[in-house]
Amino acid sequence: MSEDKKIKSDSAALTSRRSFLNTAAIASLGGLVACSEKPSSMAASAAGSASAHAQGNSNPAHLKPGELDEYYGLWSGGHTGDMRVLGIPSGREILRIPCFVPDALVGWGITNESKKVMGTKPDGSLKYTVADTHHTHASYKDGNYDGRYAFINDKINSRIARIRLDYFICDKITELPNVQGFHGIFPDKRDPVDPKINYTTRVFCGGEFSVPLPNAGTEDSSQYRSLFSCVDAETMEVRWQVLIDGNCDLVATSYDGKLAATNQYNTEMGVHYEDMMSAERDACLFFNVARIEEAVKAGKFKTIGDSKVPVVDGTHAANKDPKTALTAYVSVPKNPHGVNASPDGKYFICAGKLSPTATVIDLSRVLDWFDGKLEKIDGAIVAEVELGLGPLHTAFDGRGNAFTTLFLDSQIVKWNVAAAIKFHSGDKTAKYVVDRLDVQYQPGHLNASQSETKAADGKYLAVGCKFSKDRFLPVGPLHPENEQLIDISGEKMVLMADHPVRGEPHDFIIFKRDLVRPKQVYDLNEFPLAVKDAKDSGVVRNGKKVTVRLTSLAPAFSMREFKLKKGDEVTLILTNLDKIEDLTHGFAIPKYNINFIVNPQETASVSFIADKPGVFWCYCTHFCHALHLEMRTRMIVEA
Ligand code: K7E
Ligand code: CUA
Ligand code: CA
């Protein structure tokens, strides 16, 4: 069955592509200026049939050729340093979005535009070429995704990247000052004070590793601290930081905008792992966002080292009086991991990791404590129930059930939050565990469709299994990870599909496809350097500084050759004047280590020293046309 499908799919794609390439070739062979007609729109015809996936198809993960997915998934790539876009329920990877690390396909880290986003050293080379992305979340409006941005962390170099969801590209990267091991990240969902701001304006970032502040390289760990940071979602500047006791791990935010929290596994502030697990209870640390911003406004902060970012004091010692406290430490069993907000807006749930439990914290009671109405902050704990071994992360179906990964048990446990609260309050007849499902193997993160929004719909659950062992053909010592898809629409969970994925994604979100409106063609005006007309092409010399302006229109570049002198400091600007969807060109310069692409109406530039004399055939690397191989230009560097 699947073989048959595959063949059909291949031939459908071939036919369509072939007919497009043929018309394009004919059109262009006439005048060597190509296709301005629109290609037959595969996407449009496919969209029509997409909703009917269930008909005669028992497994929705097996989409028919041409069918589109119902959901987008944004995946962190782990230490490949990228973000990935998947279609769900098929699990097909559609795109990798480069952000923190170079990418050979698009020339990310090669072009001047991408280097500017990534950050460079004084000599123009990239500041960093490695990253480790763990958590990705998107911007909100009214408790649901608004399709503007996604944010992702780099744990290695403590950077946050923003992805524009109109073009699915990274447009800003910020490095957090005085932070190491930036791990958890979460956008706020509305302003804590201003009711008109019902959308994301802040992103919270947890610092996992403690370091000396400022980092002077001392071995004396009593001087090490962690910071919790708030980044402005628009400017991407760091607004403020909080000095805390213990460390930050994952981050969650409340639907009313008032609270952010981070789970803490190292309240001991140990340097070695045995010290980090010495205490029986650690904490979930809450931040009162409005009070922190009042304190900053009132000038109650310090700064650290060269950083100008205001740092307020969130330590135990400075926050004993609930009525003025900026922070609250709720105790949670030994070395908790994820903290997740339930879609009804009521609870944060911390998974136990080293404890077989999940702790349910009632947010209204946390606010009561800040108001002086709850005597002990641990009174906000409304359930602490046993789930199984190694609980890590929790997702929701919007019907009152939670799904938690059990790393050591290799299971997902489905449990009912209300029943767990009843059980905890003394009703031992309350059965909170609803179902258990074995997964293959050792799950880390999981997430359900729309789970992190008020529109949690309880259809699909993806789980990132850290080990795949025997699930795929062996390919030597490095195994892929196993991303599994589970149907959670019924009482019992049903495993739908296994997908091998390149290591090693952590977190992901899954949302309805109509929440984003991607554009497939750029706007020329977004690029200040755009060469808007082929007639503007040419070489402009100013001493040793040379600017080469070039355009592309399938299947030709605007200049058939251009001349440089050895030693020239060259900036080459290429604008793709093709307006047709899916008509991307590449530009490679042999021996100069340069290759990048330009999408329809995109402009990109590269700078290099013309240090090697000779003839260099710059050619189009991205298949664009029947005459794609002929699409080249000569760069002649005179000795
Ligand atoms: Cu989100 Cu993987 Cu960084 Cu848990 S962490 S598994
Ligand atoms: Cu232009 Cu290939
Ligand atoms: Ca601990």
From TrEMBL:
Its cofactor is Cu cation; Ca(2+). Ca(2+) 2 binds at residues 265, 268, 276, 282, 335. Residues 543-639 form the Cytochrome oxidase subunit II copper A binding domain. Its EC number is 1.7.2.4. Cu cation Z1 binds at residues 337, 393. Pathway: Nitrogen metabolism; nitrate reduction (denitrification); dinitrogen from nitrate: step 4/4. It comes from the Bacteria. Keywords: Calcium, Copper, Metal-binding, Oxidoreductase, Periplasm, Signal. This is Nitrous-oxide reductase. It comes from Undibacterium squillarum. The lineage of its organism: Bacteria, Pseudomonadati, Pseudomonadota, Betaproteobacteria, Burkholderiales.
